[in-house]
Design brief:
Number of helices: 38
Number of strands: 16
Structural class: alpha/beta
Helix content: 55-70%
Length: about 1000
């Protein structure tokens, strides 16, 4: 046998052994081949076999040997080869991978960079290895908590893939997977989900072993769904991923261990702690076997077991696992690494849960001192304001835990004012850092998710402020005491509590409205405005197409279209984000104006409040509801609805409100007066009676209500201030409406802004005009007018019931405007299309939509108003989605949504209800009248016609008080003995 045939046979044998995972045997043959090629001076083949031998060691987990030998091999290859070879790049890369596996992420990055530099120097960027290396760097950066750097690296990889390797779906899927990991670790969960879903869509085109990336993408999606509390989806994905991995990989493989870990996390969130421990212990068993006790993944298992034990209130055992975790992380990463600091915080939290508050505080303080690179050693009660670090998410965690620890030390141990004031100081700085982090989120869903997280912080902060407020009433001067300790108390404790409450309400809505102002003041380049407008239109178009297709039955959906539109939508969204980021660089004034969203103070509110108006701002907390009562010359705070032992009053309140609204909805058709009078008075006693005791009823006749959570769904006007017999006439009932005119808003800050805009409009004069829309849904009046027809319908085909009074309503209002000589446009029947509305809405000061609307919380877009379809065979173009309303630019003084459930939507903690009322405010409307439940066709027509008649009785519309006019019309309906079902559904949000 000649030498050539011998080497060929050896190569085939080695490859076969490698594929069979017989790495030791393969390694020996590759070593023999290397010797043969070296002796024959066949340097190219010799270098390739050296790499193959090293690759066998990698598969055999001989990581220490690779770290020691790879650099020597590279030097040896460089001495013997005169031409560049990819083997050198591959060896640098292999060493980087090994260092990453050992948790030495920064060292790994350096070797990946060496690998890239070598390829770029000799082979150019049009090389698949460059793309792979950038992804490796991104994963290392994510592991090292440098998330922005990780995102940059993965985006480089993705850009090169799109430029040179458009059909290489594996590369793109891996880049999106890396981006998802980085965004998730950064806390931008919805952005992560978008990236991972994009990778999943692309990955569906893969075949064979390359399809394994889909499993990783689904696993990471499960983690994200865990993060946003969608545990059903998280569990579904996790169980599916585990089943697939167990079919592919051997028992105990690190990927199976990852699934055990993820399932443990989901079961823990579901409070099934025994199941969670079962999976975390399985992961630990195999990680100890394969990785040893000092590996970061093994330590992660220790940590997860500690969390489960703490949840089971086995604090002693939990503490042992947390201590073990901390000891190893400190040895691996050092004292200032994020994972080390997180372990210290977990120990602090565990100690506090165990009633060891002082020790817990000391642990949290230690974590706080370790954050950042500065060497300053803060004393326990030093002000935190000088602490400026790049890892703001980690700083937020430390501030939050230390603030809480001070508060618990005050309430449970010391009763020392020093502890309480320190808690307030730290909560104040926590709110500032939370505001800075909030700005970093690029997507609305990410901002909403973070708003939910910060509301939990503000709940605790308000408690501390209320304790200080009680001391202020006994003579404490907070500002003087603060200065003694170098603390930053510029407001009273009551004002702090109110500020914390405001920061938890409608901040995203406020930011959007400020953004609109900033664009005008910053004089943005025409090219930017045009490009942004075009991108927005494309995004809306694709979003509509996706909504339409996904609203069909599963069997009827065109999966290919959905996939293509998903890809297009994501790519356009990336372009939009990059465009916005570029604007921050070229126009910093715009950026500063955009994020100037400071909340209003109590004194500023009092300057704007009329003498006869009281602002009632509610804040719903687990154990109580806090109400701020602000009048022109007075402010009070009360705590109501205290939680009784074993009875969650907050949930009870939500049920009571839901039941009450359902009663109102049904009263027009059924005799439910007995249930109504009881429910209406019970809710009054819970929510208004304690508050109104603080109000001078002889002076106050206007209420501005800032609801929170479930309170957004409650029409306060329909509550009863006194017990009443079920046999009493509706006209004789003591409705709250009979004593007060009522309006609502998302926050006091937003209300103040709308007042200022109205003053500005009054000074400049406003353009008057009315536009009305009444689809009616049938061109011939073939149905009888009926008082029992409601303005609501389930979307199931195109058979919408006719709303005949809607035509009467719109035409009647139009006649009122025409009589005053104001411009008027009316769109009825087939003319009342969605396209007409989008074109005409921006041109009028007054808008009326009398139509069907639909809310289905199971849909992707749950809110939609139904206009007339342009094609009878396809009604989908008649649907106006809330996302489209967000993109509109309105200047309407008043919009009346004479449709059902336009104030109903998903509750977003920290932002409010995501309903059409919010959408139209978002689009620029000053005031919105909307509905809280299904409303009746005829009664709605009478109410809105009378309302506009009252408004137009004024000499100029600028002097109209919409709150007062709406209340007047409702009282007139009460005098006709009409039940609340016919008038209570309509409420006003605005100034």
């Amino acid at each position: 046998m000649d030498e050539l045939e011998k080497t060929r046979n050896l190569n085939l044998k080695a490859k076969k052994l490698f594929d069979e995972q017989s790495y030791n045997e393969a390694k020996l043959i590759y070593a023999e081949l290397s010797t043969i090629y070296f002796d024959s001076k066949l340097w190219d083949k010799w270098s390739v076999n050296l790499y193959n031998e090293m690759h066998c060691k990698f598969k055999n987990k001989e990581y220490d040997k690779i770290i020691l030998e790879s650099s020597k091999l590279i030097s040896l290859i460089e001495c013997n080869l005169s031409e560049p070879t990819m083997v050198i790049s591959n060896l640098w890369n292999l060493k980087g991978v090994v260092l990453k596996k050992n948790g030495r992420y920064l060292e790994g990055i350096q070797y990946f960079k060496k690998s890239i530099d070598y390829v770029l120097k000799f082979f150019g960027e049009n090389n698949i290895e460059v793309v792979i290396r950038y992804n490796n760097i991104g994963l290392c950066y994510s592991d090292d908590k440098q998330y922005e750097n990780a995102i940059v690296s993965h985006n480089k990889s993705l850009a090169l893939s799109n430029k040179y390797f458009q059909d290489d779906y594996l590369l793109k899927a891996e880049s999106y997977n890396g981006l998802g990991i980085a965004y998730r670790a950064k806390g931008d969960f919805y952005k992560a989900i978008d990236c991972l879903n994009q990778g999943r869509i692309i990955g569906e085109k893969l075949t064979g072993q390359e399809k394994y990336i889909l499993i990783d993408l689904c696993s990471n999606l499960a983690n994200c769904y865990n993060d946003i509390s969608n545990f059903d989806l998280a569990l579904k994905y996790n169980l599916d991923v585990l089943e697939r991995r167990e079919k592919i990989y051997p028992a105990g493989d690190h990927r199976i261990c990852n699934s055990y870990n993820n399932l443990g996390d989901t079961y823990r969130e579901l409070k099934e702690f025994d199941k969670a421990l079962h999976f975390h212990n399985k992961a630990l068993k195999y990680r100890l076997r394969d990785l040893g006790p000092m590996h970061p993944h093994t330590v992660f298992s220790y940590n997860n077991i500690g969390i489960c034990l703490a949840n089971k209130k086995d604090y002693e055992q939990a503490y042992i696992f947390f201590e073990k975790t901390l000891k190893i992380r400190k040895k691996i990463f050092g004292s200032k690494h994020q994972k080390t600091i997180e372990s210290i915080l977990q120990i602090g939290e565990c100690l506090m849960l165990d009633g060891k508050y002082i020790e817990g505080l000391e642990a949290c303080h230690k974590a706080f001192n370790n954050v950042g690179d500065d060497e300053k050693e803060y004393a326990l009660k030093d002000s935190p304001y000088d602490k400026q670090v790049s890892m703001t998410h980690l700083l937020l965690m430390c501030l939050e835990k230390k603030s809480e620890a001070f508060y618990l030390c005050y309430t449970e141990v010391s009763n020392s004012i020093d502890d309480l004031l320190a808690s307030l100081e730290y909560y104040n700085y926590t709110s500032i850092i939370a505001g800075e982090i909030w700005k970093m989120y690029s997507l609305e869903k990410g901002k909403l998710s973070f708003a939910k997280r910060t509301k939990d912080i503000y709940k605790k902060a308000i408690k501390a402020a209320l304790c200080a407020n009680a001391l202020e009433k006994k003579g404490l001067n907070l500002q003087v005491e603060g200065r003694k300790r170098d603390y930053h108390f510029e407001r009273s404790a009551l004002e702090m509590a109110f500020c914390f409450s405001e920061k938890s309400k409608g901040v995203l809505l406020l930011a959007h409205l400020k953004d609109t102002e900033a664009r005008l003041k910053a004089n943005l380049p025409t090219s930017f405005v045009e490009e942004e407008h075009n991108l927005s239109l494309q995004l809306i178009k694709i979003h509509r197409q996706l909504n339409t297709e996904r609203s069909k039955a599963t069997a009827e959906q065109n999966k290919q279209k959905i996939s293509d539109w998903d890809i297009q939508y994501f790519q356009l969204l990336r372009e939009y984000e990059e465009l916005t980021k570029s604007l921050q660089v070229i126009n910093p004034d715009y950026y500063n104006l955009r994020y100037n969203v400071d909340v209003i103070t109590i004194s500023q509110i009092q300057q704007q409040l009329a003498l006869d108006t009281a602002l009632l701002s509610y804040f719903v907390e687990e154990k109580e509801i806090i109400a701020f009562i602000v009048c022109r010359d007075d402010v009070e705070i009360i705590r109501i609805l205290k939680k009784e032992k074993g009875n969650d009053k907050k949930d009870e309140l939500t049920k009571k409100i839901n039941n009450f609204v359902q009663l109102l909805e049904l009263m027009g058709k059924h005799n439910l007066k007995d249930r109504y009078v009881k429910s209406a008075h019970d809710l009054y006693m819970l929510l208004l009676a304690p508050v109104l005791k603080k109000v001078d009823k002889n002076r106050i006749n206007q209420l501005l209500i800032i609801p929170d959570e479930a309170l957004f769904q409650l029409p306060f006007e329909a509550l009863l201030s006194n017990p009443v017999s079920e046999y009493a006439a509706y006209a004789a009932m003591p409705y709250v409406l009979m004593d007060f005119d009522i309006t609502y808003h998302y926050s006091a800050t937003l209300w103040s802004r709308s007042v200022q805009q109205s003053i500005s409009l009054n000074e400049e004069g406003i353009r008057l005009g009315f536009t009305g829309f009444a689809p009616v849904y049938k061109s011939e009046k073939t149905e009888e007018y009926s008082e029992a027809t409601t303005r609501s319908v389930q979307i199931a085909g195109a058979d919408y019931s006719a709303l005949l009074y809607s035509e009467v309503e719109v035409e009647g209002v139009a006649r009122l405007f025409k009589a005053k000589g104001f411009p008027t446009e009316v769109f009825l029947h087939e003319a009342a299309t969605r396209e007409q509305f989008l074109q005409k809405a921006a041109q009028s000061s007054y808008l009326l939509i009398a139509a069907h609307s639909d809310y289905n919380e199971k849909e992707l877009e749950p809110n939609r108003i139904i206009f007339s379809p342009t094609k009878q065979e396809d009604v989908t173009d008649a649907l106006l989605y809330m996302s489209e309303v967000y993109s509109m630019h309105l200047q309407a003084q008043l919009i009346v949504l004479s449709c059902c459930n336009t104030g109903k939507g998903k509750q977003s903690s920290g932002e409010g209800v995501m309903a059409f009322n919010r959408g139209f405010l978002f689009a620029g409307a000053r005031n919105v009248i909307y509905t809280l439940f299904k409303v009746y066709d005829k009664a709605s027509s009478e109410l809105t016609t009378s309302l506009f008649e009252k408004i137009l009785e004024k000499k100029t519309t600028t002097s109209a008080n919409y709150r007062q006019e709406l209340a007047t019309v409702k009282r007139a309906m009460i005098q006709k003995n009409m039940s609340p079902a016919h008038w209570a559904g309509f409420v006003l949000m605005g100034n």
